[in-house]
Amino acid sequence: MADIQQRNETLSIPENAVLIDLRDEADYAAGHIPGAQLISAGSLREEIRRIARFNTPILLYCYNGKKSEQAAELLRSRGYTNARSIGGIEVYQGRLEPELTVRELREKKGLSQSALARMIGIRQPTVAAYESGKANPGRESCGLIRRYFFVAIRSPEKDRCGQETETVRRKRLKQTMSIRELRKACGLTQAEFARSIGVCTGSIAAYESGKTRPGTRVTDRIREVYRVDISGAAQEKPKKPGRTGREKHG
To answer: pLDDT tens digits for 107-161?
Structure first.
């Protein structure tokens, strides 16, 4: 049975069920569970007659589950025996609709890049990179945005039909880059780039100088965040010490 509190990434909704979102209109518009209808708690008594019968499964959710539990009790007392609360969207981990780009979210909330960056604990250049398409918000950033705004983030490189734009097709021709090339293309410092993939600044400096090479975990993380493959990129290698005269002549 559907239950947000189980923190599943997929929510099983019976085919004949009615799913009701009890939050306010702005939050519903920003992101809601697919298939949910927006009905305020105040108009629930009247609206329920239009969309459900007494034996219809009715699933309700709100912000934290309190209002939806009260609404379910009200409906059951009025004969809707299959009404129940499935919890609060604060802990829901499944898909939301509609999806917004970082820029759409920021403009909808009336925030500057710096303000949004501070709210989710990243730097302003990182937000700028997300909005320009130079970088893709990783799982951690998307999770922070979702917990703060209850919004699902989509990549800016896709149009409203979900297709890549011609500009992005041209940009994606260069799929393989060195770490230095990628970082400079995104306009990030070594420290900012390091935070975005969860390593220390010293590691980035070592990768760029050729002292060490990134392991599989790092290359996978870069691929996830920036959509670039650096595993085969030619990193700068340290120069080998020259041979001495004795070595040359044996």
So the answer is: 988 999 999 999 888 889 989 988 887 777 877 788 788 778 877 787 654 443 3
Number of H helices, E strands in the chain: 13, 6
Cα 227 to Cα 235: distance, rounded to the nearest angstrom: 18
According to CATH, the topology of domain 179-226 is 434 Repressor (Amino-terminal Domain) (1.10.260)
CA-to-CA dists, residue 58 to 25, 29, 61, angstroms: 20, 21, 10
CA distance 223 to 217: 10
Structure tokens at 120: 């989710």
The answer to whether the bond into 57 is cis (omega within 30° of 0) is no
Q: Which residues belong to the active site?
A: 62
Phi, psi torsion values for 34, nearest 5 degrees:
-55, 130
Name the nearest CA neighbour of 172 among 187, 153, 158.
158
